[in-house]
Structure formats: structure tokens, C-alpha cells
Amino acid sequence: MVGFKGSNAPWRGLATALVGAGLVLSAGAQARQLTYASYLPPTHPTSEDGIQKFIDIVQDKTDDEVTFAFYPSEAAASAKTMLSAINDQLIDAGFIVSVYFPTSLPVNTVLSDLSFFNDDNAITAAAVTDTILNDCPQCLDEYKKYNVHFLATYSTPPYQAMCKAPMKNGFDPKGLRMRAPGAEVGRWVSEIGGVPVNIPNNESYEAMERGQVDCVIGAVAWLKSLSLGEVAHSVGTLPMGGFQGGSLFNISEEVWQGLDAQTQHIMQDAALEALASTVYSYTAEEKEARETALKDGVNFVDASPELVKQRDEFMQSQIKQAAATASSRGVKNPEAIVQAFLDNMDKWRARIEGKNLSEQQYYELLKTNLLADAGK
């Protein structure tokens, strides 16, 4: 039987979270139900094809010995309170975005600060997860400090600028207020003459609608999943980083220590299967959103050769900048983390690029290599 070690596994804080959410459960069900939170809506790929997929797999493979109550759309925690919510045992798992916690998670933010190297989300998701699981003990220890047991994370397709103005004369970022996630994308926006605004992506629609930002730097899939297609009239096609780092799939460290080995294995494997689902779903939604936007008359605007060159130079500058920023935040030997990520990008590029893998094949590749490297 899978489930929990002993008959009285540590569940402090869980009852409080469930009561606060208005759930009425029997004592037996309460002892086994966990809470999972996300700040994004239930139809977002990270929710529908990521977290929910993970939950379904775990519940199925444990014969409902482990179940979850899923709270999307900030029902249990916001983007900027997710880490403290897990640490304080108000929830048992949640979507953590490291760039929202640069002082609390400076080690893991190193990986987020290398986002301009993301040109293929399948490669990047594998490389980031590999780096954290197998090449960065500091990364894992940092999460454990906040009661988080990291399982896996994902990466978006490369970000682009979705703007309110039609930009019929070409992509011109000068003077535009641009939603820029994290310090590095903010540095890029400033470098090209824009004004960076750091807000969570779930606030992007309202910010653009109200004129608080002119552009949102993010995944083109958000034209659909966050309804930005209703307020954006142009997309600058120049890649501008992307999400990587953080932790989409995790579980409270206290809960993890109360699970038996078989259940721990099920959760780790489920995280990789859900990672594959998230990556492929995001890519498919990106394609669909782009096709719909073109039909709706959204302008897709290319950057000038000069701006493309500036972008490539900025990407290379991230190698030293990410390490320097991490060092200023007290991270020891950040150069090793940077190099491990770059090496893993090369390794996973060789495994994936040009192979036209199915989602199942990608998952099998993750399972074979990531867990083997982790000695599991």
C-alpha cells in the first residue's frame, strides 16, 4: 500500500488550510488530502495540463491514498505569497516563480536570470530541472529552507512583447511601459529605451486595459489563456527571455518526509510526466493563439537588425551578469550554477533538437535521464 509513513504522519497546518477553504472532511480523508495552489486561472496550461495532470496521476497511482484539493486563481495564495504560504504550512504545494522572490531564493533566481538562452522550451525545461535536481545542491537546500521539496519545473516558449498599439511602422520600444518579469528582463527593457514594470502575469490584462502598461512581455499563448488578445493589437516577434526556474511541481518538505518511498517515487515520476504535458500543451496553445491573433488582425512586427544584434549581445552579457547579481545577493560560487545550466542546455539540445519527439517520448527521455542522474 502506498501512502504515509506510520499511522500519524505530520500534518500540522493542513487542517487549518482545509477549514479556511471551507472544506468539510472526515478525519480519515483529512489525513490524506493535500492542498495545491496556483495564482493562475484553471484554464492556463500550468493549471490544466500541469498541476491538474500531476494531481490526477498521483491520485490514480496511489488509489486515492493521496488526494489533492486544487486552488487556482489565487484562491489560496497569490504569486507573491506562495512561498510563505508553503513555508507556514497554509498549503502543501504551490506554483513558485523565483523572480518574485529574488532575496528569498537568490540561488534559484540565477537560473531565471539566464532566460534569454531559452530558444526552445522543451530543451530549457529539461535543462533547468536537470540543473536543480542534479547539479545544484544549493538550489535544493534553498527550497528546503522554505519547506519546499522541489520535483520539477517547466519553461515557456520564448517571450515576446504584446502591445496595445498596432505598431504598423515597426517595433519601436522607446518610451513604452513594458511588463518585465524579473530584474534581467527589466534590465533589457531599460537598455532598449523602455520602462520596466514588474507585475505578475495574471495582472497583465487589467494593467494593459487601464493603460498602466503599453506592452506585456510574455508568452504569445497568453493572448488566449490570459485573454490578452482582447487588448493587444501587435506582437513584437523578437524573443525576449522566457519563464524558467522556480518550481511548478513541488510538495511541502514536511509532507514529503511523511510519505513512504513508493509514494515519493510516484510523485517524482508524476512531476516529470506533468512537465512533459505542460511543455507540449504550452507549445500547442502558443501556435493556436498565434494563428487566431493573425486572423483577428493582430500585427506581428519584426525587430530591426540593430535590435536583433543588441538582443544577442544582451544574451551573452547574462552569463556574467547573472553570476554578479547572485554574488551580490550572497550566493556562493554562482559561476558554477551558470556553467551547469549552460552545459545542461548543450546536453539536452543534443538529445532533443531535430528529433520531433512526441510528448510520450519526451517524458520517457526525462524519466530515463533525470532520475538516472539523480541516482533514483
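The above is record 1. Record 2 follows with the same two-line structure.
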Amino acid sequence: MAEFTFFTNPMSRGAIAHWALLEVGADFEYAFVDWGDKPQALLDANPMGKVPTLVHHHGDHDHVVTEAAAICHYLAETHPDAGLLPNAHKKADYFRWLFFAAGPIEAAVTSKAMGWEVPDDKRGMAGFGTYELAVDTLDNWLSSHDYVCGKTFTMADVYVGSQVDWGLMFKSLPDRDSFKAYAERLQQREAYRKARAIEAEQRGDAA
């Protein structure tokens, strides 16, 4: 048995976890999920039936990890030799932007896509303020940093980078110079390229 079982679908946020698994060289088995016929093993692990869901077969017991940002960090922690954790001085940046992308950016993009308008007097409750403020905040950081932690690629870039990459692709983020340059750097990574090629083949649109 592989060390990890990876429940995913190539047309989902599972693509983030897929990239992360390849970055650390994890020993994993794909468990592809048909939206119309979700396997009982997935529902047992995650009653919401969401992907990605990662099951870590650890000795005589299993650990279940859900939510793409959590999966990314969990893989970095369980594969320290991959060198994708921040050093002590960069932990603040690592966790700040990992959770900023998973929280305010995700919420801002979703709200905009849904056409939800936050009243001016409720912006504090929304958590992201406004779409423009959240986007400008990320743009400001990436305008002066090659990666989340400066010059060094870490696992946080898998998650933050996926948000930016998809945002540019699907036009949910504006076409900012900092976003484009950041995405281009990440697209050169071997694990990124391999993950995207496998997903294209799974979707049937590989060249």
C-alpha cells in the first residue's frame, strides 16, 4: 500500500494538492472521484465528499487531512528532506501568506464571482474588507518578493501560486505584472509541469 491515498478530480482544487505531492516526492495512490458517484471511502474519510482529501496511512492507523492549504503544509512537515519549510526568520511570512490566500483572497474572489456586495459598514465582518483591498495587498507583497518567503521557494508558494495561476487563467484576478511574473516563475518548476501534464491527460485534452 502507498503511504498516502489521494482523493481527487483533475477539475478541482485537487490540482493544488497534486502539485504539492509531487514537490515532496510523496508515495501516493490516486483515487479519482466521479462527481456523480463519490466512493464510500471518500465519504468515510470526509463526510462533505470534498476533494482534495488526503489519507495518510501511518503505521497501524490513518490520518485524514482536508483543505488544500492544510494538505500543502502537512506534506511539507511530513517530508522535511524536501526542503519546503521556511527557516525560523521566514515562518511569519510563510504562515501569513498561506492563510491570507486561503482566507481573504479565496473569500474575496468567491464573493466577486457570486456577485455578492458587502455593505460598507459590514466590511470588517467579511474578513477580506473588499476585493480590491485584498488583491492590492497581495500585489504589493509579490511586487517586491520573488516568492512568499523572499528569494526561497517554499510550500506556501504551491498554495499561493495556485491561487494566482488560476486567478489569471480564469480572470478572477486582475492581470497585474507581479502576478504574471510570479506565475511564470512557478510554471518553470518540474513538479508543476508534471502535475499539469498528468491532469491534462486525465481530462483527455493532452496534446
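The mean pLDDT is 96.
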